[in-house]
Design goal:
Elements (H helix, E strand, L loop, with lengths): L28 H10 L5 H12 L13 H11 L4 E9 L4 E8 L4 E8 L4 E4 L3 E3 L8 H5 L1 E4 L2 H16 L12 E4 L9 H12 L13 E5 L3 H8 L6 E5 L5 H7 L8 H15 L3 E7 L7 H12 L6 E7 L13 H13 L20 H7 L1
Parallel strand pairs: 4-7, 7-8, 8-9, 9-10, 10-11
Antiparallel strand pairs: 1-2, 2-3, 3-4, 5-6
Length: about 375
């Protein structure tokens, strides 16, 4: 059992810092038309720019040869300010896992992780610099919240990864980005407006967006119930991933402090409502922490709570904890992990151990940023 801990204060809104410069990806299609017109150009230039950005995945003026040079250089200077600069890039798994630490315009740092598999590719993006949820086992949670990212700062993470894959920079030859997961730094639903604006650009057909399938986009949350219910009404078949980590309120309030606002039963009820509205099976994320939350009775309790809400609506992903430097917690023993999975499956809950990549390159989100801060 976990011992008592001092209550942690949650930061639900980002501290005020300077706003990032406005970028093409911050604008809706009609706003792009106006922005181009305001610069003295014909409105059709907006579609040309969108085609280069979302289809050719570039904001390089030299690549926009269908625009007059003076025109393209002026438009790019005004509408495509540099938002992300790679501060550090690390590779693992033979180069098929690429973790990038990005430096933002104000010096804040965020991370994204690109993972290529034999038949698919997945990008994990950050939605905040730091995080205000204060989960003590999470590297990002220990950084605290710096600020929300703008829509364009998130979109740029996606575009950069998609371009890298298209250019064949990741071993395996040129390919497309298939999956997007909001599981990087930050609580996505605490930056709801920018995250949803990003999602709509990602799934919009080219040239107004990247043309990805909404079914291949996953949004994670620690359980912000009002935002979960709002997400269910967006009319998008996204996958919702709930970071639960404990089935009982006593432990979950220690591991996930927001549980003191919305209890285990409340977040599970909201997750069930998400399934009922969207028809999309919910993923339950559960970081297995040795001697903390990996007990067989907790697996049984989780199985009971999930089956009490019906069958076929949920899938559990136990995740071996990726320890952070100086942490008192570590991953569960493999035999304990196997027992936990077997117990859940015994309750009829589909359960799959999450593939963990990049442990040798500080794979847990927030570790590189924390090192840089130090």
């Amino acid at each position: 059992m976990a011992g008592r801990s001092t209550p942690l204060t949650l930061t639900m809104t980002a501290p005020r810092r300077g706003k990032p410069p406005r970028h093409f990806a911050d604008m809706a299609p009609d706003e792009r038309l106006q922005a181009v017109a305001d610069l003295g150009e014909k409105p059709f230039r907006a579609k040309q720019l969108a085609t280069h950005y979302y289809t050719h995945l570039t904001s390089d003026a030299d690549a926009m040869t269908d625009l007059p040079r003076a025109t393209r250089e002026g438009l790019v200077a005004e509408l495509f300010p540099e938002l992300l600069v790679p501060a550090r890039v690390m590779q693992a798994d033979g180069g098929t896992t690429v973790k990038t630490l990005w430096k933002l315009f104000d010096g804040a740092k965020v991370e994204s992780v690109l993972m290529r598999y034999p038949n698919r590719s997945t990008l994990c993006v950050s939605s905040q610099a730091g995080c205000g949820m204060a989960c003590p086992f999470c590297a990002t949670g220990q950084l605290g919240l710096t600020r929300n990212l703008s829509t364009a700062e998130i979109v740029e993470q996606v575009r950069s990864a998609a371009r890298s894959l298209a250019d064949g920079d990741v071993p395996g030859g040129p390919t497309r980005l298939n999956n997007l997961v909001f599981m990087g730094m930050g609580e996505p639903l605490a930056n709801y407006k920018a995250v949803m604006a990003t999602v709509r650009q990602v799934v919009a057909a080219t040239p107004d967006g990247l043309g990805m399938s909404a079914r291949n986009v996953t949004v994670s949350t620690v359980g912000l119930v009002p935002a979960m219910d709002k997400l269910a009404k967006e009319d998008l078949p996204l996958t919702l991933a709930l970071s639960l980590h404990a089935p009982d309120d006593e432990l979950r309030s220690e591991l996930v402090p927001v549980n003191t606002r919305w209890s285990v039963d409340e977040v599970l009820d909201s997750a069930r409502r998400y399934f009922e509205v969207t028809g999309r099976r919910v993923s339950i994320e559960y970081a297995l922490i040795r001697d903390m939350n990996d007990h067989a009775w907790r697996a049984d309790l989780l199985g009971e709570k999930l089956t009490a809400r019906g069958q076929g609506w949920v899938h559990v992903n136990p995740i071996p904890l990726n320890p952070t430097p100086g942490s008192i917690w570590t991953a569960s023993d493999p035999a304990v992990e196997d027992e936990f999975v077997a117990r859940l499956r015994g309750h009829g809950i589909p359960t799959t151990i999450r593939d963990t990549r990049g442990s040798d390159i500080d794979g847990a989100c927030g570790q590189l940023a924390a090192e840089e801060e130090e």
